[in-house]
Structure formats: structure tokens, C-alpha cells
Write a structure and sequence with these properties.
The chain is of the alpha/beta class. The chain has twelve helices and ten strands. The protein has helices spanning 44-51, 82-122, 129-162, 173-182, 190-199, 215-225, 231-244, 260-272, 290-305, 317-323, 341-346, 351-362; strands spanning 6-15, 18-28, 33-37, 59-64, 67-72, 200-203, 278-282, 309-313, 326-331, 334-339. The strands form two sheets. A six-stranded mixed beta sheet has the order 6-7-8-3-9-10, with helices on both faces. The chain has a four-stranded antiparallel beta sheet with strand order 2-1-4-5, with helices on one face. A hairpin with a 2-residue loop joins strand 9 (326-331) and strand 10 (334-339). Helix 6 packs parallel to helix 8 and helix 8 runs parallel beside helix 9. The longest helix has 41 residues, at 82-122. The protein starts with 5 loop residues before the first strand and ends with a helix.
């Protein structure tokens, strides 16, 4: 069996405390059409953007044609003892709630005490002088007790607030440094990035076309600037691929004169002009009016038939089922389930996958 054209191992992407991707592992073979489905916010688009380094992964290894182009074996977060951290955090939060409740309890007792004092004064005539004085002294004593307890509760609450639980207190810096030393990182330079992006090309949901250029110029510029293709050769290739997406009669149009579906077809033609080995599609139909979705999907179906390797983030379940060789369901930054389309759509193994696909399966 041939080696995977693209290999992703232990890929993670964190935005501060927000862990968008968590240990993604995937092998992509030449000619694969892989659809990635899942709820919004599950990390699908971030995953695609990491593959051609539009987003720099926090950790993981990316290999293209068996050559590693990105590697960070470990990140600091991997060396936090989360078991102890979570245990300490739970204890801290419980103590915070307990002391806060204590402050509220003694504050409420003082309010009730004030009401009791007011009531005794109103009912003064019902007591003898001795009884009233005794009751009054008793209330004063209680007030002093309440004030003392409130003061202690506030101090305890304040002391706990002064010592929050921090991840850095559970972080093993020496182990992290040793891991980095044992497995040096590979952080790519601009030359490598340009090479990868010429072979692993992204088609965006928002088109990302140059509005100051016409359709033909949009398909020429990257060839001449990145691939250093001579202008006439680049123009010939641009015309060829614009024709393949049925945009040959719009080559001299301004981008502003095109419909959404036409813009997306131009974006696909521009990607094809780079002679990519993989095209990444980031929800290519999500910004389109419903009547324009079909024309873009038809172009993508035709591309799949040519054997082009494609990874598609999509909400178009029909496309995912009918065109894909593999379907991946993602949620909360994880690959929950992956497999052949007929298995995922007809017999999903994971409950979360079944729940997500319930409406589609029902239809």
C-alpha cells in the first residue's frame, strides 16, 4: 500500500484555555475524498486551517508525502498534572462557596437581629422594666456574637480569595524542557509555508478573491508570484480551469459583478491553477443562497471523479454520503467517529453521531 499523502498525528490547537483541537490523528491517501461533519464550534474549520498553517498548531506532527513539515512534540499544557490540579480546584471552589455562605448566614442573622430589636422596642409596654432590660442585654450580646462571627467569615473568605488555584503550580517545567530537547520542534519558514500552500490549497467559504482584479487575473497571480510560472503559461492554465468550472464566459468580469456561486467557482478554479495535490474546502456552500449551492456541489463532484484528493468541511449531508470515501464526525475538538459513508450514515456506532444525524437519517 502506498504511504499516505498527508499524515496528521496528535494535532492540538489551543487558544489560551480554549482547547479547540485535541489529539487529532488522521491519514489521507491519494485520491481520498474526506468529508468532515459535526456541529458548529467543533473545530472543523480550525483543523483545516492548521493543515496548511493558516493557524499554527499548538502541538502535533504534520507530514506531506512522508516529509515532516511541522512538528511540536509537546506543549506546556501537556506537563500540567491535571488530576491534582482539578482536585485542588474542586476543593478551592467548595471552600469558596462554603465561606461565602458563612458570610451570607451571619449577615442574614444580623438583619434578623435588627428586626427583632425593632419588634422589642415596639412591644416595650408589654414587658416590665426588668424583663425589657434583660431582653435588650440578651440581644446586644447576640449582636456582638454575630458581628464577631461575620468578621471571621469575611476574613476566611478573603484569605481563600487571596490564594487561587493556578495551573502553573502543577506544571513540571523541567519535564517539558527535557521533552523539547529529546524531540526538537520543526517550525517552518516562509519558503516551506509557500511550498505547502501551493500543494495543499484552501477554498474558503468567503471566497477570498481579489476585488481589484478581474476573474482571469485572480487565477493568474498566484501562479506567477508563488510558482514563478511565466505569464502566458499561467494565463493558458487559468483559462483551462475556468472553463472546467463553466466560468469561461466571465473571465473579464469584475468580482463584484459575480453571484456567490460564480465567485466560489472562480475560487475553485484558482485553487486548481496551483496544481495542488490536496484541496481543502472550508464549508464552500455555507455563504451561498440555496439555489446556488447545487452548481458548486456539482463542480466538486466532478473534481472528485478526477481522483483529486479533497478534504471537505460541510453541512451538505447528501454530498458527504454520495461523494466521500470517508466521513469524519467531529465534536468538541475530537474525532468522535470515522468510517465509510454508508457506515456513518446508516449505522453510526457512537451515540453522539447518531444524535447529530438523527434528522438526516429520519429523512
Amino acid at each position: 500500500m502506498n504511504a499516505p499523502i498527508l499524515k496528521i498525528a496528535n494535532l492540538a490547537k489551543y487558544f489560551g484555555a480554549n482547547k479547540v483541537l485535541k489529539d487529532i490523528n488522521l491519514e489521507v491517501n491519494k485520491g481520498d475524498v474526506i468529508s468532515i461533519i459535526g456541529p458548529s464550534g467543533s473545530g472543523k474549520s480550525t483543523f483545516l486551517r492548521c493543515l496548511d498553517l493558516l493557524e499554527t498548531p499548538t502541538r502535533g506532527t504534520l507530514s506531506f508525502n512522508e516529509e515532516i513539515y511541522f512538528n511540536i512534540n509537546a506543549c506546556k499544557d501537556d506537563f500540567v498534572d491535571y488530576q491534582e490540579f482539578n482536585k485542588a480546584l474542586e476543593f478551592y471552589n467548595n471552600e469558596l462557596i462554603r465561606t461565602e455562605d458563612e458570610v451570607a448566614i451571619w449577615s442574614n442573622k444580623l438583619i434578623e437581629h435588627k428586626l427583632e430589636v425593632h419588634k422589642i422596642k415596639e412591644e416595650k409596654n408589654n414587658y416590665s422594666v426588668e424583663e425589657f432590660n434583660a431582653k435588650n442585654n440578651e440581644l446586644k450580646s447576640l449582636k456582638n456574637d454575630y458581628l464577631a462571627n461575620l468578621k471571621l467569615a469575611k476574613k476566611e473568605y478573603k484569605d481563600i480569595r487571596k490564594t487561587p488555584i493556578l495551573k502553573r503550580d502543577f506544571y513540571d517545567e523541567n519535564a517539558y524542557k527535557q521533552a523539547i530537547f529529546d524531540n526538537p520542534s520543526i517550525i517552518v519558514n516562509s519558503k516551506t509555508i509557500n511550498h505547502i500552500r501551493s500543494k495543499v490549497v484552501m477554498v474558503f467559504q468567503s471566497f477570498n478573491l481579489f476585488n481589484n482584479m478581474n476573474v482571469l487575473e485572480n487565477c493568474i497571480i498566484a501562479q506567477t508570484k508563488v510558482l514563478k510560472v511565466p505569464y502566458n503559461e499561467a494565463k493558458e492554465k487559468a483559462i483551462k480551469h475556468l472553463t472546467s468550472v463553466n466560468m469561461q464566459d466571465r473571465m473579464n468580469y469584475k468580482i463584484s459583478e459575480l453571484s456567490g456561486g460564480q465567485k466560489q467557482r472562480v475560487a475553485i478554479a484558482r485553487a486548481l491553477c496551483m496544481d495542488p495535490e490536496i484541496i481543502l474546502f472550508d464549508e464552500p456552500t455555507s455563504a451561498l443562497d440555496p439555489e446556488m449551492v447545487g452548481e458548486v456541489l456539482e463542480v466538486m463532484k466532478n473534481l472528485a471523479k478526477t481522483g483529486l484528493t479533497m478534504i471537505v468541511v460541510t453541512h451538505e449531508m447528501g454530498f458527504a454520503k454520495d461523494v466521500s470515501k470517508k466521513v469524519i464526525f467531529m465534536e468538541n475538538g475530537y474525532i468522535v467517529e470515522q468510517g465509510k459513508p454508508e457506515d456513518i450514515f446508516n449505522n453510526p456506532q457512537e451515540e453522539r453521531t447518531r444524535s447529530f444525524l438523527k434528522r438526516y437519517i429520519g429523512n
